[in-house]
Design goal:
- This protein is an alpha/beta fold.
- 43% of the residues lie in helices and 14% in strands.
- The protein has 8 helices and 6 strands, in the order αβααβαβαβααββα.
- A 6-stranded parallel sheet has the order 3-4-2-1-5-6, with helices on both faces.
- The chain starts with a helix and ends in a 12-residue tail after the last helix.
- The relative contact order is 0.19.
């Protein structure tokens, strides 16, 4: 890791961790084996991101659409946060990383909710990088929820139509707690698929996208560094024209 990479990293990186099932199938293993391996990769990349000086790492762990998978797979995915936090929270505290959960947590099983609450509480004093986990999250649902909250505040007189602008909308989104780093500069998706799958629809408006063919269970810190370095070479204009 060179000084250039360390000094010019994006402050918020979001990752769509894709390919666990295909990784397992390729090895004639059940899909849950891919999820188990993928959990370990989250730990590796979290530590790598923290050591690079990234402020927020958002990982897409479970979408609102994932409930449509088999009951066996969903049941295992609901257990993963319990296993993950039980083993990783001490390391997160050591690394000074705080846990934040983004999504409809109240719809998760009670044991999963308890594990999440405990991890948030136990890392609450950490003031380094935020590990933001999107769990039972969907971009469309997030926007609908935000619009309903705004409409309610309008009805109660807490808000006027003239006050509604881009900054205000962002205050009603699930990422508002991450400010000033609520919008990712870089979004990475593994496994070769090139779509955002209902992920951070508002927040990714001006993010740089990078896609890798690597399945998530094979994703390494070294490849992560390479993608960050590639990001540094991008010319981010935000609709403007830079002087030649």
């Amino acid at each position: 890791m060179n000084k250039e990479l360390k000094n010019e990293v994006p402050k918020h990186v979001a990752i769509i961790m894709d390919g666990n099932g295909r990784w397992a199938k390729k090895r004639h293993l059940p899909r849950i084996a891919g999820h188990k391996k993928g959990m370990e990769i989250i730990k590796n990349i979290t530590k790598a991101a923290n050591r690079l000086g990234i402020k927020v790492l958002t990982v897409y762990a479970f979408s609102t659409e994932n409930w449509q998978r088999s009951q066996e797979e969903v049941s295992y995915l609901m257990k993963l946060p319990i296993i993950f936090f039980n083993s990783f929270v001490p390391e997160l505290i050591k690394e000074n990383v705080r846990v934040n959960i983004m999504g409809y947590v109240n719809q998760l099983p009670n044991d999963t909710q308890k594990a999440i609450s405990a991890a948030i509480q136990q890392t609450s004093r950490c003031d380094g990088m935020i590990l933001n986990i999107a769990l039972n999250y969907g971009g469309h649902d997030e926007l609908v929820t935000a619009f309903k909250l705004m409409a309610t505040d309008l009805q109660k007189g807490k808000l006027t139509i003239d006050q509604i602008d881009q900054n205000l909308v962002s205050d009603y989104l699930m990422t508002h707690e991450l400010k000033p780093y609520d919008n990712p500069e870089l979004m990475i998706r593994t496994s070769g698929e090139q779509r955002i799958s209902n992920f951070l629809l508002w927040q990714l408006a001006y993010s740089e996208f990078m896609f890798t063919d690597t399945y998530w269970p094979d994703f390494t810190a070294e490849e992560f560094y390479e993608l960050i370095h590639a990001y540094q070479k991008r010319d981010r204009r935000f609709g403007k024209i830079k002087d030649e």
